[in-house]
Amino acid sequence: MNIKESYAVVTGASQGLGKAFAESLAQKKINIILVSLPNQYLKELSEEISEKFNVKTHYYEVDLSVNENVLNLTEWLNKSFDIHILINNAGLGGTRKFLDASPNYINTILQVNVMATSLITHQLLPNLLKQPQAYILNVSSMTAFSPIGFKTVYPASKTFVHSFSRGLHEELKDTNVFVSVVNPGAMKTNPDVSKRIEKQGFLGKLTLLDPTKVADYCIKQLFKKDSVIVVNPVSWIIMKILPIWIKLPLMTSAIKKEIEA
């Protein structure tokens, strides 16, 4: 496949895992379109990746919690580029009592994690289908395998992402578009996040991952056509084996420690 003129789209690309995805793809000489919120230094990152890895880069600043914004983004992408990779990495979490959550807080998580992921995929799929070989990678979460108190909406939204990805993979298995999903744990995106997760105790430390290593492994497995990418086998096994009546209070207790800390 000639990838010199085609592009990979990465959402949530300004920092953490999204930035690591963009850099990992650029290392493989794949052109990148970075998508993230405004005021995240996306222009500077785009230029930095272009110069460092000698690839073509573009960027698009947008709030993905607004459906109209998502449709404007995908319209621009489809008019301007051939796309052979889509990484739906943008996602919102949060930790608070459900009673204390504002309607906007709940709506934003669902809009970004559920609606934006679905709409971007839907709108770009015709473009992806035109390519000789194309890939979709959706970023779910280890929380997809258990409800959690004091998070409530976030795990439910990531359960959707996992289920959506598996269903779409099956639907498109006889086409040129391969669909994969990854369910990582927490990321060492910055010292504050690492410290906050570590306050959750054993379970928090167990799932804490390095974004660069996760991104590199995910890209490698994506091109190997691994439909469910496992980046942390220990926590994966624990989450799959433990019955809900054990892991639900266990994980809720860990999150409660984070709130109290």
Describe the strand arrangement of the main beta sheet, using strand numbers. 3-2-1-4-5-6-7
- Which CATH C-level class is it? Alpha Beta
CATH topology type: Rossmann fold
Main β sheet profile:
7 strands, parallel
Radius of gyration: 18 Å
* Mean model confidence by pLDDT: 91
Notable characteristics:
alpha/beta; Rossmann fold; 15% strand; 261 residues; 7 strands
Overall description:
By secondary structure, this protein is an alpha/beta fold. It has one domain (6-192, 208-236): Rossmann fold, CATH 3.40.50. It is 52% helix and 15% strand. It contains 10 helices and 7 strands. The chain has helices spanning 16-27, 42-53, 67-80, 103-129, 153-171, 191-198, 202-207, 211-223, 233-241, 244-260, and strands at residues 6-11, 31-36, 57-61, 82-88, 134-139, 177-182, 228-229. It has a 7-stranded parallel β-sheet with strand order 3-2-1-4-5-6-7, with helices on both faces. Helix 4 (103-129) runs parallel beside helix 5 (153-171). The longest helix is centred in the middle third of the chain and has 27 residues, at 103-129. It is globular and about 50 Å long. It starts with 5 loop residues before the first strand and ends with a helix.
